[in-house]
Amino acid sequence: MKSLKIYVLMFTIMSFLFLPSLNAQENQLNKSDEEITKEVQKKIKDNLYYTVFDWVTVKTDNGVVTLDGYVHLPWAKRYFEKFATETEGVKSVSDNIVKISGPDDIRYRAVRAIYGNWLFQNYRLMKDPPVHIIVINSKVILEGTVQSEVEKGWASTLLEWNTNAGKIENNLAVEKS
């Protein structure tokens, strides 16, 4: 009888010791879709290999993460998918990122035209510059955000004047003040 009391006492003590850690793990696995999206997006944007030549968006629905966009480095697609897969609360990952290739001269002329212009000076030293330049063959796609319609229009004009792009698609969003 005495040994049974000891076992019950030990079980009770052990339950109180391990119960908080089990609840913490359960709470981490029950992250909201918004929390998962923000965490995955932060991991991608904070990465050294995520540059102005890449554009990746993250959406989460019931723990299923969908990655969309473009990368210019061959290994970046797998790399960013790994970030999403290793994030707590993620059930699965749908990777729709496209590995793109385009002429480097168009890519470099475009980045110099935009970030070398006085209107975009305040953007060029940011950790994640807001204007991303995607080059697919001779087509240039602008993604990201700017502060005004003038900046949006000027970005397209700079590319028309300074690159040999066959087509320019301006998807820049204007921030609302």
Give a concise summary:
The chain is of the alpha/beta class and 177 residues long.
Q: Main beta sheet: strand number and arrangement? A: 4 strands, mixed
Q: In CATH terms, what is the fold-level topology of the largest domain?
A: Histidine-containing Protein, Chain: A
The assigned CATH architecture of the largest domain is 2-Layer Sandwich
Order of helices and strands: HHEEHEHHEEHEE
Percent helix range: 40-55%
Radius of gyration: 24 Å
> What count of structural domains?
2
Backbone structural class: alpha/beta
| Overall pLDDT metric | 87
What low-confidence regions span 5 or more consecutive residues with pLDDT below 50?
21-28
Number of helices: 6
Q: Which overall shape is indicated by the principal axes computed on the Cα atoms?
A: elongated
Number of DSSP strand runs = 7
Q: How does this model look, in words?
A:
This protein has 177 residues and is α/β, with parallel strands linked by helices. The protein folds into two domains: 33-99, Histidine-containing Protein, Chain: A (2-Layer Sandwich), CATH 3.30.1340; 104-174, Histidine-containing Protein, Chain: A (2-Layer Sandwich), CATH 3.30.1340. It contains six helices and seven strands; from the N terminus they run ααββαβααββαββ. The protein has helices at 2-29, 33-45, 76-85, 104-115, 121-124, 149-162; strands spanning 55-61, 64-71, 92-99, 131-136, 139-146, 167-170, 173-174. Helix 4 crosses helix 6. The chain is elongated, with a radius of gyration of 24 Å. The model is unreliable at 21-28 (pLDDT under 50).
